[in-house]
Each structure stands twice: as structure tokens, then as C-alpha cells.
């Protein structure tokens, strides 16, 4: 497993953080997901054979949140 840290903009409540957690958790190869509303970031453990930081960020963006 590898770890990715993705900045997530546009989260304004705990519901937003829960949405981001759900979107990331459903991706293939994703293990642990920790989303921090205060830090505006997601920390994801993932299997690099099944996913990538770019794919993780795209899923967050597709859910309507900003990533950098």
C-alpha cells in the first residue's frame, strides 16, 4: 500500500467530508481513507497496482470538489 495526500477544496460541512470519504472508499484498491474538513485534505492508503493519486483526485473532482 502507498499513501496519497490530496488537497480538497469546497468542503463546508461534515456531510461533505463523508461524501469525499465514500467516493474514495469505493475505488478499487483503496484501503483506509481519512478526510479532514479542518485541513481540507484526504489521506488515502491505496494499492498502486489498482489505483493512482491522479485517479483518486479525479474521483474527488468528479464528486464536485476542488483538488490541486
Distance N terminus to C terminus? 22 Å
- Structural class of the helix and strand makeup? alpha+beta
Specify the number of helices: 2
Radius of gyration: 11 Å
Give the low-pLDDT segments.
Answer: none
The pLDDT mean sits at 95
Q: Give the ordered list of helices and strands.
A: EHEEHE
Percent range for β-strand residues = 25-35%
Principal-axis shape: globular
The portion of residues assigned to helices is 25-40%
Largest sheet: 4 strands, antiparallel
Keywords:
single chain; 68 residues; alpha+beta; four-stranded antiparallel beta sheet; 4 strands; globular
Topology, element by element:
Elements: E1 2-9, H1 14-25, E2 30-36, E3 41-46, H2 53-62, E4 66-67
Antiparallel strand pairs: 1-3, 1-4, 2-3
What would you note in describing this structure?
The protein is α+β, with helices and mostly antiparallel strands and 68 residues long. Helices cover 32% and strands 34% of the residues. It has helices at 14-25, 53-62, and strands at residues 2-9, 30-36, 41-46, 66-67. Strands 2-3-1-4 form a four-stranded antiparallel beta sheet. The protein is globular.
